[in-house]
Amino acid sequence: MAAAAAAGGAAPEQEPEPPRRGPAEDEEEEEEEAVEAEAELSAELSARRSAEARRLVLSPRRLSGPLPAGLSQWFPALEVLDVSGTGLAVLGEELLALPRLHTLLAKNNRLGGPGSLPKGLGQAPPGRSLRVLNLSGNRFAEVPPALLGLRGLQSLSLGGNRLHGIPPDIQELRSLEFLYLGGNFITSIPPELANLPSLSYLVLCDNKIQSIPPQLAQLHSLRSLSLHNNLLTYLPREILNLVHLEELSLRGNPLVVRFVRDLTYNPPSLQELAGRTVKTRNVPYAPSDLPENLVRYLSLASNCPNPKCGGVYFDSCVRQIKFVDFCGKYRLPLMHYLCSPECSSPCSSASQSSTSQSESDSEDEASVAARRMQKVLLG
């Protein structure tokens, strides 16, 4: 046996297994990695540090907390900050100390939870200086109230979030020129959106919007309106009043797949019948002759769009779809309101038997619309 062992050589010794790591050691290693990452970020910021630096783009890192402390001291003249794709869940108080910041890009992060935006943003220096804010691709379920105080904001992007509505207070952003809300779950548009006098580009595509409020016709600066991939079955007739509109995108809506031809009518009340008589027969009255509520009611009369009718209506009217040619190529269903079912007019081209008069009326409006719109995207 001894000779065999000598001939075959000594048996190799088995290496001892490394000792198993405990939870405490794993936590210690994670803390060390976090410290190293923070040190690397500080080194990167220090390398870029300059009192005159106006633009800063942070590369994607493990930024799960707020912005790095001391950012305002390192970059006192910062005007453009891009933290897109960094994994940020919170934009902390450090943001409030950047007095010249006019562009903040924070796309594709994890913002949207409580405290994602610092309190008092609208009253802080950036609240007065911010002009462009892009928060697309985050997790906001509602438009953050803190944003509604940014009175100088000109461009706001909240696409690809989880929004279910647009707050009426959006009208407070009076300087807004570009509003992107595509790719959310919005079901309706508040009429207050029409109170943005400078709005030129409105993107509401890829939502669940079923109707457009006629008040949007008050957006006289609007040049582009994107409504594709929604649930629209008609457009309000007032959309023809958007005199500067150059681009209207409607593809992917039911109104493109099939034109809806609805006729709904609720009989007028006795008050409405009396009000119609007063207005159509020009019965004279003074505020001293009637109670205040009736005077106010009479002021709400709407004229029937049928030029042959001359009637008025208040609450009871016929909702009817009229097909109008756009740019000589597309026929869009626009919503009209008639004073009664007996009001057969050029507007009633939604009926099966369209008359030559209705066709000529459609052509007249088409010539106006063709001058106002350069591009209608339906397909």
User: What proportion of the residues form beta strands (DSSP E)?
Assistant: 5-15%
Major beta sheet, specifics? 10 strands, parallel
Distance between the termini: 91 Å
Instruction: Provide the structure class.
Output: alpha/beta
Return residue spans where pLDDT drops below 50 for at least 5 consecutive residues.
1-12, 345-370
For this entry, give a set of tags.
ten-stranded parallel β-sheet, 21% helix, elongated
Give a quick precis of the structure:
The chain is of the alpha/beta class. It has helices spanning 2-8, 23-48, 71-74, 125-129, 254-257, 270-280, 292-298, 356-372, and strands at residues 55-57, 80-82, 103-105, 132-134, 155-157, 178-180, 201-203, 224-226, 235-236, 247-249, 263-264, 302-303, 312-313, 318-326, 330-338, 375-377. It starts with a helix and ends with a strand.
Describe this structure in words.
- This protein is an alpha/beta fold and 379 residues long.
- Helices cover 21% and strands 15% of the residues.
- The chain has eight helices and 16 strands.
- Strands 1-2-3-4-5-6-7-8-10-16 form a ten-stranded parallel sheet, with no helix packed on it. Strands 9-15-14-11 form a four-stranded mixed sheet. Strands 12-13 form a two-stranded antiparallel ribbon.
- The radius of gyration is 32 Å and the shape is elongated.
